[in-house]
Design goal:
Two copies of one chain form a homodimer. Chain A is α+β, with helices and mostly antiparallel strands. The first copy, chain A, folds into two domains: 78 residues, Arc Repressor Mutant, subunit A (Orthogonal Bundle); 78 residues, Lrp/AsnC effector binding domain/regulation of amino acid metabolism (RAM) domain (Alpha-Beta Plaits, 2-Layer Sandwich). In chain A, 32% of the residues lie in helices and 30% in strands. The first copy, chain A, has five helices and seven strands; from the N terminus they run ββαααββαββαβ. In chain A, the strands form two sheets. A four-stranded antiparallel beta sheet of chain A has the order 5-6-4-7. In chain A, strands 1-2 form a two-stranded antiparallel sheet. In chain A, α1 packs across α2 and α2 crosses α3. The longest helix of chain A is centred in the middle third of the chain and has 14 residues. β5 of chain A pairs antiparallel with β7 of chain B, so a sheet runs across the interface. Chain A binds a DNA duplex through α3.
DNA sequence: CTGAGACCTGCGGATTTCGCAGCAGTCCGC
DNA sequence: GCGGACTGCTGCGAAATCCGCAGGTCTCAG
């Protein structure tokens, strides 16, 4: 009736989450299904999730706790920054000479920087900035980022309109 | 003892959330405080939140429900895409001739596209793509995006390493 | 064979959620 | 000034959920 994900766990995937060589835990189908449930509604009761994935309430609870402890997922409220009073956002492409990782670390430490990723292509790093107003944004980009030793150049893309933002990884 | 956010709501901010002219609801300090609580832990009990912000359990519950209904926030599980099996990600900068909004809409409809924003600067649109492997990524960029009528050019930045990703807007 | 470890189930008791009735303050129009 | 509509908060009791813990099963290693 209700789609059971698995029943006879025939070897191989007991140990629902286990370290693989690169350090990221491997997830089995059931944990994935649990995550999907929580991506639809982070407050869905464990019993309801259990019914959906074919597990007892307690088992779901233990798995969720483990996923949280391991840092595989987190359950949080996400908002539209505009609504919460941050009126200027920008993506900044950065070119670095020398240690890219080091610059990335420095960006990570800035509270206005929401997102940092090292990339291949004509930028070494992309960083998303969330600010209260133009002055604040200008300050962060010009004073704090461009002055980092090793930053060769930056290019800014000020956000005009956010069209889509989902958190539905694994739900398709 | 426990930091009350407000007590005498002296006019002005009854109507905790109200439409301002641009359509985005205005949030008062208490709702902001509630959001902060839920950004730390999306499953925190209403009573605990109430204690923190100085409201009854029922009041917090009503406010949270309203914030969800209005779409101001959503409570969801967020994960590291890599852990869930999406091994290739990229940011794509796009230049458009003609109706930018239209292209943005088209991108929004693609399930692999996680994030779409219209920008000022040398790209008209930035879109984040989440894929399972290289083939999938190539397919989305070359076949689906570049073939959209009006797309003049694209530039891709394949993700090498995600360094930071927070959901703490309003928490600083 | 035996012990350790991972994972699941079942079950009470504590806690939380939920729905609702009641109350207070504001903003109308009359 | 005074109802009436509206919004938001509180306080409750009932229902549902969460939580901890004591087993049980399976697998692997020695």
């Amino acid at each position: 009736m209700h789609s059971e994900v698995v029943a006879s766990r025939s070897a191989e995937q007991r140990d629902s989450t286990r370290e693989s060589r690169n350090g990221t835990p491997h997830l089995d189908a059931v944990s994935l299904a649990i995550i999907e449930q929580l991506q639809e509604d982070g407050r869905r009761p464990y019993a309801a999730i259990g019914k959906a994935v074919g597990l007892s309430e307690a088992a779901v609870r233990q798995r969720v706790q483990k996923l949280l402890d391991q840092g595989v997922m987190q359950i949080v409220a996400v908002t539209d920054p505009l609504t919460v009073g941050f009126r200027r956002q920008a993506m900044v492409g950065i070119n670095v000479e020398g240690d890219v990782e080091k610059i990335a670390e420095a960006l990570t430490d800035m509270s206005e920087v929401e997102y940092v990723v090292m990339t291949a292509g004509s930028f070494d790093i992309l960083a998303e900035i969330v600010c209260e107003d133009d002055d604040h944004l200008l300050d962060v980009i010009n004073k704090r980022i461009r002055s980092l030793p090793g930053v060769r150049s930056t290019e800014s893309f000020v956000y005009l309109k956010l069209k889509k933002q989902t958190y539905m990884w694994g739900t398709r």
